[in-house]
Design a protein that fits this description.
single chain; 47% helix; alpha+beta; 9-stranded mixed beta sheet
Length: 493
């Protein structure tokens, strides 16, 4: 079969809508043919075939529907860019210029794009990756999901053979989730925000919006009753949400954080479909992007460890390698989280010393400010169960702290590989070349950490209590909203 031509990020700009549609139509035909072949070979069932057909027959229409939903919430997009999903960076043309699209025609299932909105002074970026390949979807259907489904079928049959209760067997069989019920991410996207409070507020916004209700915009609920607001066409089931920010620290071994939301849509004449949304803090998104190559290596190696043909010695060696992959992933994610917390404290300092913000009346006896305490409470994310040490947590003498700061001020790119052989040397050389203004900024972050250590320690203690690592004293409940003044203050211009 002749390989389908797919234009790169730059080539697609010159194509017309009809040319893009023709390319996508050809991709659709090829995908449907692969699904049909998998069915004929007995690899997937008829139900699974029909389910996959529903998503792969016209994915362009589904992409447009998803974008329309976000347009209703956030308004007109500020910009649309081509990005490299493996790094999170904007792709560049032959002249080294960022590839920016002026037309929504470039938002396609075969092209990775980032659509940016401005909301209440904050930047919200929606990343539309390429649609999951049909080969990978079929593999997941009969691989991990199929194995789980068949295992539960066998368990139900074994139970029937012991008790011979036909009604019980029928009930158990009906309650077994189908393989397709696990296929959440055929259509998936990522939304990145600067701060944790924005991620949490987005989650609540998606829950509140229901079919037939007036659509709530993200920036303010004062427009809730406006006649200009359009009705939403989607809904979210709260029980389907997976919030890793709330997961116990000792159960989150890879230190990966996001909130997964399933958005259910209905299109008249087409039917229903769903897409997965990963809500992430932007800094953590870049860390996650760097772990993708490790994930792919791990996935391939994991399959080998489950092979019955591998010698025992080889299998044990592979398992040790899997552990090393997991350790590398955890290290990258830990560094990204530390960098994010550094940015929280950096913004606190910026707020305190911005002359246009009259915070003096909110000053506490210990030199902290009420609004800044609230901001830290809503946005700082505990990194471990260890007590907070203000002397070392953000000290300039630590190489990891230097790495995080250099990426924060963009002296090193977000894609900088801290695991490379000469990483420490490059980090220290770059740091030593910083000017006095940057060094002073680092010192200010450290000083803020010392002044607000009580607030940070309370956040850590609250996590210990939630995770059963500490008895519960009487503590105040953390808020989850920011004053409009502070939101404006926290936005650098």
């Amino acid at each position: 079969m002749k390989q389908q031509y797919i234009p790169d990020a730059e080539e697609i700009i010159a194509l017309s809508r009809d040319e893009i549609k023709e390319i996508q139509d050809n991709i659709n035909k090829e995908n449907l043919s692969k699904i049909d072949a998998a069915y004929k070979q007995g690899y997937i069932t008829e139900t699974e075939k029909e389910y996959l057909h529903h998503y792969y027959k016209d994915p362009m229409r589904l992409y447009r529907e998803i974008y329309k939903t976000f347009f209703k919430i956030f308004g007109k997009a500020e910009k649309i860019e081509a990005i490299n999903i493996d790094t999170g960076e904007v792709k560049r043309d032959k002249n080294g210029q960022p590839i920016v699209y002026k037309d929504l025609k470039n938002l396609t299932p075969f092209n990775c794009t980032r659509v940016t909105f401005k909301n209440a002074g904050h930047e919200i970026a929606i990343i539309f990756p390429e649609m999951k390949s049909v080969e990978r979807t079929i593999e997941k259907t009969k691989g991990e999901f199929g194995v789980e489904y068949n295992s539960k079928i066998r368990q139900a049959v074994d139970a029937y053979s012991k008790h011979e209760d036909r009604d019980y067997l029928i009930e158990q069989m009906q309650n077994i989730p189908s393989t397709t019920s696990h296929l959440h991410d055929i259509l998936r996207l990522t939304i990145t925000c600067d701060f944790l409070s924005d991620v949490k507020n987005l989650k609540e916004l998606f829950i509140k919006n229901k079919p037939g209700n007036k659509l709530l915009p993200h920036n303010s609920i004062v427009y809730e009753n406006s006649d200009e607001q359009k009705e939403t066409d989607y809904y979210v089931i709260p029980e389907e949400i997976r919030d890793r920010f709330e997961k116990p620290l000792d159960e989150n071994e890879k230190k990966y954080y996001d909130i997964k939301v399933l958005m259910h849509h209905t299109i008249k004449g087409f039917g229903s479909f769903r897409n997965e949304i990963q809500l992430k803090i932007k800094t953590l998104f870049y860390g996650d992007a760097k772990t993708h190559p490790i994930y792919e290596l791990r996935r391939s190696l994991f399959a080998l460890t489950r092979s019955t043909n591998e010698p025992e010695a080889t299998r044990k060696m592979n398992e040790r390698t899997l552990k090393e992959y997991d350790d590398l992933t955890e290290q990258i994610n830990r560094n990204a989280l530390h960098q994010y917390n550094m940015s929280v404290l950096d913004n606190v300092h910026y707020t305190e010393y911005n002359d246009s913000i009259p915070l003096q009346k909110d000053m506490n006896a210990d030199g902290t400010y009420c609004d800044c305490v609230e901001f830290i409470e809503n946005n700082y994310k505990e990194e471990s169960y260890d007590d907070f040490d203000p002397q070392t947590a953000f000290s300039m003498d630590n190489t990891i702290n230097r790495l995080c700061f250099l990426r924060l001020i963009e002296a090193l790119p977000q894609t900088f590989n801290e695991l490379s052989k000469d990483a420490a040397k490059q980090i220290n050389e770059t740091f030593e070349s910083l000017g006095e203004e940057d060094i002073e900024r680092f010192k200010n972050i450290n000083e803020v950490a010392k002044r607000y250590q009580k607030t940070i320690q309370e956040i850590i203690n609250e996590r210990k209590i939630k995770d059963g690592k500490m008895l519960q004293p009487k503590t105040k409940k953390r808020k989850n909203k920011l004053s409009s003044r502070l939101r404006k203050a926290m936005t650098r211009t």
